[in-house]
Write a structure and sequence with these properties.
The structure is a single chain. The chain is α+β, with helices and mostly antiparallel strands. The chain contains three helices and eight strands; from the N terminus they run E-H-H-E-E-E-E-E-E-H-E. The strands form two sheets. Strands 1-2-3-4 form a four-stranded antiparallel sheet, with no helix packed on it. Strands 7-6-5-8 form a four-stranded mixed sheet, with helices on one face. Helix 1 runs antiparallel to helix 2.
Length: 183
Amino acid sequence: MNTDLIKEPINGAKNWKSIFTVIVLLIGGFGFFLAGLSSYLNVNLLQLTDTSQIAFIPQGITMLFYGTCSLSLSVILIFYIFSDFGSGYNEFSKIDNTVRIIRKGLPGKNRIIFLSYEFKTIKNLKFLIKQGLNPRCNILLVLKDKREIPLFPPQFLLNPSEMEKKAISLSTFLNVPIETQKV
């Protein structure tokens, strides 16, 4: 194992949660769209249920609207999944004293997002813990000019104790203090 280089891969939109969300949005959106369209055409397009009792205004038009929104959102998510939006890696190198954060953006001229910071510009690491109904934790790179750069995307959920161990090992590697903040 190389003790002068840490390289951590980051998964982007191509994960099981995104795929599950797309499947649910497609099925639900398609069902709502067909139910709304059935009420407009007075034809039962859904074989699973009888939609003849649904009045087009207001129920049918509402279902048509929600179905269209859901299908549109699922198409956008499919695009993100196939472009693997947000994937990349974090690289911490003692060889050239730099931290590199590389991510894939949207397809185009500036697809690759590349951030590079020297060790001397790093003030500390912040271990952020959000408690409540939707608990999260993340590690932020705090620079001397007070910028805070998250090192992991929001969907990168680890056990808080695992994330704390990761923060401590990074703090030791970078030789900077660590600050814990509970929100």
